[in-house]
Amino acid sequence: MTFDLVASPALSRFTVDRSEPLRGDAERLAQGWPKARVIEVDAGGRTLVADGGSRLVHREATGYGDVPHEHAVFLGEQDGVAYWAVPRADDTTEALAPGRVWDRPAAGAEPTWLDLRSCGALLDDMGAGLFTTAVALFHWHRTARFCARCGAGSDAVKSGWARICGACGHEEYPRTDSAVICLVHDGADRVLLARGEGWPAGRYSVLAGFVEAGESLEACVAREILEEVGVAVRDVRYLGSQPWPFPRSLMIGFEAVADPDEPLRPAVGEIAQAKWVTRADVRQAFERPGSVPDLLLAPGASIAYRMIQSWAFA
Asked: What's the whole-model pTM score?
């Protein structure tokens, strides 16, 4: 059997017009600044959210000056309003450790600073798209301050969507690393899940890996699964994609079929455990989290969550 995603992955949602031609139009952007809205993002990749993490807190752009902030990035327009993001002023927050999720507040709590992993699945379509884009752009700026061609310092241009070298004039744009993520099933009622080294006890997800130079997406799926769990796959089929700005990936989702009688050989140092799980157990784990021993599923902000959910309830 095959299946399709039941809905868009949480971080794939985006409603504003990215308005690429507008990024270099400083005059028009300045004219729209007085009614623009701004979100702040701290060094830990968090922004201020309200209503239990379901609503971004926008502020009036004029609170940041009469023209676009020096380090502001333009996210897009909707209904005649421009949306920007700025780094949090005087921020000393430590960067979020890989896989860590900040505590999520209860509904009705005071606005608080949350990471994209914590609230990405709770935000509305516009909020999810704005926050995802802001996190991706700010990470790129932090790691691309020097020219890749000559090593001299570079400056942000085009409303934060490019950097130009002050020495050689080389222009760079935000980078994205392609990664495949694949739900492997047996063609019937079992799915192959794995737990990465260093993950919390009982946390399982589908398999993923980065695309290598000169490699097709389908070839990467077959190679990664063979390397990570020692299983050959067939019938590789595309499902969907999602940006994953931790730090700059695009997760490209697939399904594939494998023989559950093949012995599993988890890659040493990478995969702590791998196992076949029944559809009934996966459904129960969704409906009553914690009720299936040794089976906690991927968080809602990830495309893995949407893939497993879509297979389980197909």
From this structure: 0.92
